[in-house]
Design brief:
It is a single chain. 2% of the residues are buried. The protein is built from two helices and four strands. By secondary structure, the chain is of the alpha+beta class.
Length: 152
């Protein structure tokens, strides 16, 4: 009876450990996605500033898909159309558009930080569970030796 209880306890601990490890992996994926988004936002700001610095009348190549580009003449970059969510776009003056994108970066960084904190907490739980599993394993090993001694 005690053996079944011990097995159930070990199974429960192992199941909890696997669940937490899966949560950690999901957080890693989310953090990686946020890193890509933050990088894209930063690249957008850099590109917009570079286009503004080029000035009106410059020839540029616009990507059309992955394999083609088309030539275009740059106009003044004083208004930018940006997505503000749910497929809604708004035209903003250049500086306001940059500020809006920078706000998005700050929000994404805050979310990333929160996910990292959650991951640290989960790693602490992994350590606690691992310790419990080790202790449980040592206790079972000790009982096994005790049982062998009684049988002799």
């Amino acid at each position: 009876m005690a053996v079944k209880k011990d097995e159930k306890r070990m199974t429960d601990l192992t199941r909890q450990l696997r669940s937490i490890i899966a949560q950690i992996e999901a957080l890693r994926v989310e953090i990686a996605q946020l890193d890509v988004l933050i990088s894209e936002y930063r690249q957008t700001i850099t590109t917009l500033r570079n286009l503004k610095d080029l000035g009106a009348g410059k020839e540029v190549l616009l990507p059309v898909g992955r394999i083609a580009q088309v030539g275009a003449k740059l106009e003044e970059v004083d208004k930018i159309v940006i997505n503000i969510g749910s497929g809604i776009s708004v035209e903003l003056p250049f500086d306001e558009a940059i500020q809006q994108i920078e706000k998005e970066i700050v929000a994404a960084l805050a979310l990333r930080e929160a996910l990292e904190r959650a991951m640290v907490e989960l790693y602490e739980k992994v350590e606690e569970l691992s310790q419990k599993i080790r202790e449980h394993g040592h206790a079972e090993a000790g009982e096994g030796k005790k049982d062998e001694g009684e049988q002799k």
